[in-house]
Amino acid sequence: MSQKILLDKINVPGIKTYEVYRREGGYASVEKALKMTPDEVVEEVKTSGLRGRGGAGFPAGMKWSFIDKKSGKPRHLVCNADESEPGTFKDRFLMEYIPHLLIEGMITSSYALGANLSYIYIRGEYMWVYKILERAIAEAKNAGWLGKNIQGSGYDLDLYVHCGAGAYICGEETALIESLEGKRGNPRIKPPFPAVSGLWANPTVVNNVETIAAVPWIVNNSGAEYAKIGIGRSTGTKLISASGHIKNPGVYEIELGLSVYEFMNSDEYLGGMSSDRPLKAFVPGGSSVPVLPANLIYKTANGEDRLMTYESLSDGGFATGSMLGSGGFIVYNDTSCIVRNTWNFSRFYHHESCGQCSPCREGTGWLEKVLHRIETGTGREEDIDLLWDIQSKIEGNTICPLGDAAAWPVAAAIRHFREEFEYHVRFPEKIKNRDHFVTEPFEQVKHLVSKELI
Amino acid sequence: MERTHYKQDINITPELSSRIEELCSHYPADKRKSALLPVLHEVQDAHDNWLSIELQDKVAEIIGIKPVEVYEVVSFYTMYNQRPIGKFMFEFCQTSPCCLNGVENLMDYTCSKLGVKVGEPTADGMFEVRGVECLGACGYAPMMQLGDFYLEHLNEEKIDQLIVDCRDNKITLHDK
Question: Fewer CB within 10 Å, N side or C side of chain B?
Fold first, then answer.
């Protein structure tokens, strides 16, 4: 059984309430932090090696140390709870079942940053979780953990939940800030980075829910202890949300460094494939990261065991690797149609593009349109190269990473499953009138395409 | 901005007004605009789940910003409705993990059961089916959102029961 630091109390009855959470040792990190200097708290987080759990994996302590302390302006901590990446549902689980952990993390982290006004920006669809957090904040305030002069320390903090209204782009930190200012969620050009000019042009740190929720453990047990969990630069634990054709979908806390094979097949985690069909592909980190075919799932291109770490999952770059991303682990069996899945993702990115940058606004629409015609049996042979060309012109050419996120799944699908695209173009009659997401097993597809080539 | 032919009674009750002011108090006094998204949710909930242009103008007046600042927000975010919608809006997640678990067939089933197409309310205005992008419940697929709540691991039997419960007014839409 691996170590749990975020979900260790999740099964305690009533842990959602302040009373039980406090009885189980909750808010101890605030007590401890308030006796330390803010810089000492930042140093612990730096030592821990904790990396942002929203997807980018940037070291959290380093991000904190960038905050502008010389400007004299108010500082803010904003929690990014705008979880909207297809395949990812871990933050919701954490907030719904143990809301005080996030609030404790917000108080400790705000103290470290010298922030007196902080926000949790939650996606609008999670409305009942918004209400859970509002109630938990009220409980924490009544118990003296928020407001003026917290626990007699002289430190003041106001914390509020702010709800979005259905826009994936608001998960990008500058778009989130725009949205928090009551505007459309259009990302800002960086620099300046939020640590210098963020919310209302004040120095601001934006961290993901899971990142902030890890801070209480780090402060209670020290950054050095946290760094002992995991492997190399992938320290600590990670929440993985698993879905698709597996026996046990759900949210899991793993120690970074666990092998993908064990995560996929042991009964403690996913329990293997559902319906006993073979594994065809998986997406390890949410829809934006490249899909990997079966032969690259358990082993890297060098033949090493593939591990659940930032480094191992990206081993070999996108030619043979993917990304840990947000930990949205989606598994596909051999009947899953990769073309339809890629079209589905492209529709998502087209829908969610804010429209600010032309390559993304126009390109995501092209991708969706071309993929739709291939999927529905009206594609042309040259469409596959056209798709490749479009995605290459989006990647790296937009203000925010949504363009990259739209391009990568398409590139990876063509790179690893080109035969399936060719099969759709050459055998349209075979894909018409079939069930939506079901295709013939990939080996059969490859066989048909190669026979056609002969 | 074009005025629609849909009419909406505007009713900012003292309770709603007080909630709006409470939301505005979460931000610095000179940053009331920041409360716009949460305020729009509250106002929409209190007005049959949609926002006419006249109602958007009213929100602008209450917050103290220009009407266009409200229009551009309402038209950007998907959760604000600019026309009357079915009282019970079945919002099916149509992104990959839900599709892998058959949500497309389930949407077809629901539409045929209600005798509507996606995006069209039933004649009595009671139901509407909509496909939406990822709702973050991929491990509990297929799923849909109804009001403030998620309904997960859906199947045809659950849909049948849900329709009956909606007709019998046994469903709560908002978590107050």
Answer: C
CB nearest B37 (choices: A164, A241, A344) = A164
Give the gap in angstroms from C-alpha B164 to the nearest C-alpha of chain A: 23
**Residues of A whose CB is below 8 A from B140:** 89, 249
The alpha-carbon gap from B105 to the nearest alpha carbon of chain A, in Å, equals 8
Q: Which CATH class is domain B14-76?
A: mainly alpha
CA angle, residues B101, B118, B132, in degrees to nearest 5: 55
- Domains of chain B: which residue ranges? 14-76, 88-168
Q: Do B100 and A244 touch (CB under 8 A)?
A: yes
Q: Residue A407, CB half-sphere, CA atoms under 13 Å: how many?
A: 23
Domains of chain A listed by start with CATH number: 18-228 (3.40.50.11540), 231-333 (3.10.20.600), 338-448 (1.20.1440.230)
CB contact under 8 A, A165 and B26: no
Q: Is A168 on the interface with B (CB under 8 A)?
A: yes
Q: What is the DSSP string of A333-390?
A: ETTB-HHHHHHHHHHHHHHH--S-SHHHHHHHHHHHHHHHHHHTT---TTHHHHHHHH
CATH 3.50.50.60 fits B88-168, yes or no: no
Q: Which residue in chain B has the smallest CA separation from A200? A: B31
Residues of B within 8 A of A162 (CB-CB) are 26, 34, 37-38
Q: Is the pLDDT of residue A214 over 90?
A: yes
Query: What pTM value is reported for the model?
Result: 0.95
Q: What DSSP line would sit under A71-92, residue for residue?
A: S----EEEEEE---STT--HHH
Among chain A residues, the shortest Cα distance to B76 is held by A184
* CA gap A56, A224 in Å, rounded: 23
Q: Is A128 on the interface with B (CB under 8 A)?
A: yes
Q: What is the mean pLDDT of each run of 10 residues along chain B (176 residues)?
A: 72 96 97 98 95 96 97 97 93 95 95 94 93 96 95 97 95 82
- The answer to whether the CB atoms of A249 and B28 lie below 8 A apart is no
SS3 content of chain A, % helix, strand, coil (to 5): 45, 15, 40
